[in-house]
């Protein structure tokens, strides 16, 4: 299944990602498909986003397999804490993953709240993908 | 699954190198990476990512992003992956195939690896079936690797045997190659890229093509 992203929808998605930066304190946010293709991004990129998208999708997929092995459907919270940067993974739809980078001083609770709200906003993405909008 | 971003004017496609363990998939990528580095020098921003075991065997995948110029005004970005060849890594290998747009099957020309090649092609079919796909849907190029070993007197499978064993039904483009010295490495990649782009475009332009369009 291929995805064609038109300019207006990329802008719309970027605005939603901007909410995570402005209101949630994130430093960088991006959407990738489960195959590791970068869909769109917002914020100041600390690294090569193409590679980050690939590794994030792979990490999410591997973790999902671990969940299945131990009898879970999937883990609801997936995030890594670092010294200078944290990373948070959220499944938006069966095909789309939201990755957020944020500094350790940013509240994880607040960020998760904002991610939930943005997730709902992007929730209709799948409908839009299938041309239902 | 190819992604076309009309704002950034980018088309991204995923090509996966598949084949038995130690057949030279990673060596292909290392050669391509070194060639890019030779050409681009300081301008080179692409990194070769390898998730290996301690003994340098691929554990999850190798990944190399490559920009290949423009097509229909869009920057063409290839996402090149290898899979782990060893059978015990079947789960991770399957994960790498998710959303694949094109394949290179790197076969081992060593006489003793004939069974391994056959077995791997069968597993590839099963892995694709897991994603409701098949070798009839995904473009593939075959590479008969390690041809350079003939000079050292190592017994190799002849090209006809490889063709009959692996490519008799598909009749896909195939290349005798040596990933170690670069013989036909870029040619294989170019062919795989060409077939992949043709296939993606065909899926996009056909009305029954399974493209998802976001936006207006």
Description of the molecule:
The complex is a heterodimer of chains A (133) and B (216). Chain A has 133 residues and is of the alpha+beta class. Chain A has a single domain, classed as Dynein light chain 2a, cytoplasmic (Beta-Lactamase). A 5-stranded antiparallel β-sheet of chain A has the order 3-2-6-5-4, with helices on both faces. In chain A, helix 1 runs antiparallel to helix 3. The two termini of chain A are 18 Å apart. The mean pLDDT of chain A is 87. Chain B has 216 residues and is an alpha/beta fold. Chain B has one domain: Rossmann fold (3-Layer(aba) Sandwich). Chain B contains 5 helices and 9 strands. In chain B, strands 1, 2, 3, 4, 5, 6, 7 and 8 form an 8-stranded mixed β-sheet that branches. In chain B, strand 4 and strand 5 form a beta hairpin. The longest helix of chain B has 21 residues. In chain B, 45% of the residues are buried. The chains are: A alpha+beta (133), B alpha/beta (216). Chains A and B meet through strand 1, helix 1, strand 3, helix 2 and helix 4 of A and strand 1, strand 4, helix 2, helix 5 and strand 9 of B. Strand 1 of chain A pairs parallel with strand 1 of chain B.
CATH homologous superfamily descriptor of chain A: Dynein light chain 2a, cytoplasmic
Strand content of chain B: 25-35%
Order of helices and strands of chain A: EHEEHEEEHH
Number of helices of chain A: 4
Shape of chain A: globular
Task: Report helical residue fraction of chain A.
Answer: 40-55%
Largest sheet of chain A: 5 strands, antiparallel
Provide the number of structural domains of chain B: 1
H/E series of chain B, N to C? EEHEEEHEHEHEHE
Which descriptor suits the 3D outline of chain B?
Answer: globular
Unreliable segments of 5+ consecutive residues of chain A: none
> How many strands, what sense, and barrel or not for the largest sheet of chain B?
8 strands, mixed
* Radius of gyration of chain B (Å): 17 Å
> CATH H-level name of chain B... which superfamily?
P-loop containing nucleotide triphosphate hydrolases
How many strands of chain A? 6
């Amino acid at each position: 299944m291929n995805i064609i992203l038109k300019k207006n929808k990329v802008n719309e998605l970027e605005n939603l990602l901007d909410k995570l930066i402005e209101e949630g304190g994130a430093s960088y946010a991006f959407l990738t498909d489960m195959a590791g293709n970068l869909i769109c991004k917002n914020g100041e990129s600390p690294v090569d986003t193409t590679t980050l998208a690939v590794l994030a999708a792979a990490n999410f997929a591997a973790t999902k397999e671990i969940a299945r092995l131990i009898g879970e459907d999937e883990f609801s919270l997936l995030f890594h804490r670092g010294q200078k940067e944290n990373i948070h993974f959220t499944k938006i739809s069966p095909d789309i993953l939201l990755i957020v980078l944020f500094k350790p001083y940013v509240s994880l609770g607040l960020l998760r709240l904002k991610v939930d709200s943005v997730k709902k906003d992007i929730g209709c993405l799948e409908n839009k993908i299938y041309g239902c909008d | 699954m190819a992604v076309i971003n009309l704002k950034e004017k980018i088309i991204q496609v995923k090509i996966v190198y598949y084949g038995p363990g130690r057949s030279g998939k990673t060596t292909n990528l290392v050669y391509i990476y070194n060639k890019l580095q030779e050409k681009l020098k300081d301008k080179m921003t692409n990194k070769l990512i390898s998730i290996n075991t301690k003994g340098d065997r691929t554990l999850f995948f190798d990944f190399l992003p490559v920009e290949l110029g423009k097509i229909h005004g869009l920057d063409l970005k290839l996402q090149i992956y290898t899979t782990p060849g060893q059978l015990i890594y079947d789960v991770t290998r399957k994960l790498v195939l998710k959303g694949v747009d094109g394949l290179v099957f790197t076969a081992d020309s060593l006489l003793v690896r004939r069974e391994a090649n056959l077995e791997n092609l069968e597993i590839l079919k099963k892995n694709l079936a897991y994603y409701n796909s098949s070798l009839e849907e995904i473009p593939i190029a075959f590479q008969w690797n390690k041809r350079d070993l003939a000079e050292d007197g190592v017994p190799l499978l002849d090209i006809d045997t490889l063709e009959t064993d692996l490519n008799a039904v598909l009749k896909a483009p195939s290349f005798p190659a040596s990933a170690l010295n670069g013989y036909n490495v870029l040619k294989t990649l170019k062919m795989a890229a060409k077939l992949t782009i043709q296939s993606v475009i065909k899926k996009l332009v056909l009305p029954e093509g399974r493209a998802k369009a976001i936006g207006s």
